[in-house]
Amino acid sequence: MKIRFAEPRDKEFVVEFTRRTWEHGDYIEDVWDTWVNDTIGKLFVAEVDEKPVGIMHVTFLTPDYAWLEGARVHPDYRGRGIATELNKVCMNWAKENGAKKIGLITAETNYPAHKVAEKASMRKVAQWVFARINLDTFMLDNRINLEEIKTAESSDFMDIINFLSQSEGYKKVNGYFSWLYEILPLDKRFILQEMKCHRVFIVRDKETKRITAVGFQEFYLDWETHALSMYLGYLDGDPEDTYKIVHKVYSLFKDNNIKKYRLCMPATENAKKLLEMLPLSREPGYLRVYEKTL
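and the corresponding structure tokens:
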């Protein structure tokens, strides 16, 4: 087995064996060129029998936090320790280039990935639940007064910090924001940045004025539809009030030809209760984040 940097000539073979990763395909073809040309990361290939039968991408999310993603091994070559070797090489590269910590995210049911991570002494630090709303059947709930759901302003900042510091969900995800299949620290700097862009939504209790729910909204270009999609990368709080945020965000952007509406939340009982209130296009999935100090 030879581990090396990926080259453009590897693309055709890799894309072919990853086309059927899931029933709906795989995104590797869409990100290949970006990963090969990543100026702060590297795409590694495992070569066996002169074929690129395994890949893994390592990049930096912050100057000292590295990220592993896109681990794929050709079905005919699984069980040979290829993912373990790719993992090891990527970690060494990250450490040599200044990483103090490295992480990855994987499905709760992806047991081979768990085994590879745990073999590398990584530990589970966060658990998310993610879901996709069925936009064909989703309708605004006319019982909700959408004016009650605010876009957070600078005066709300400390109350948001206090809400998160007491939140079971915030602890469940180790203080992270989920950016699709990557993470970012949901810290003061990030919150201020999102507030400045009008992407933070809050609900307050009418009597106590305390924040009872918070949501951070983003857009992304979906790899399946190649269209603009909507995303709540952190949604937390009372189920009735997170329900209101889901509707508020949809009301603002429903005319933008949105093709998908996805939610990512700390895997708590509140999240489960919210999902029971919404029409989903498929069963909710669970993700776990592994980390290791280098």
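(Above: one complete record from the training split.) The chain is about 30% helix and 35% strand.
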